[in-house]
Amino acid sequence: MEVVVIDSLNAYLHAMPSDNYLVLQMHELVSYLAQQGVVTLMTLGQHGVMGNLRLDVDISYLADTVVMLRFFEAEGEVRKSIAVIKTRTSDHERSIREFKIDRDGVSIGAPVLGFTGILSGQPVLTSSTGELFASRSSAEADGA
What we know:
By secondary structure, this protein is an alpha+beta fold. It has one domain (2-138): Rossmann fold, CATH 3.40.50. It is built from 3 helices and 8 strands; from the N terminus they run βααβββββββα. A hairpin with a 7-residue loop joins strand 7 and strand 8 (124-125). The longest helix has 17 residues, at 19-35. It is elongated, with a radius of gyration of 18 Å. It starts with a strand and ends with a helix. Mean pLDDT is 79; it is low at 135-144.
């Protein structure tokens, strides 16, 4: 299986005279690559780390699957969440999960419960039933 990664569409957009050209060109490119049996992965950065999001262009209609990564604040720390918000080919898990990347690789936590508004970047704690990844390492917890 061949894979093409476009990272990122934001830079690609800045090279185009109009976002209309980008949408048309991406549609043609993705269609052609799909006909050739190539998997295409595209990233699109969103403006605004926390709170309201703004996109330079929306081409999610081209995607079979959309995975959203967001920052959110909880317990005085900046956290990261991951959620699949669209898939054409099958049903998908609808939970939002915290994830982290560290020296051990990528870790995906249990569904984040007890919050609303995580994907907006402005979560509100609604109950304390959910557990996030441990906030501190064991060395920090021991006072080292």
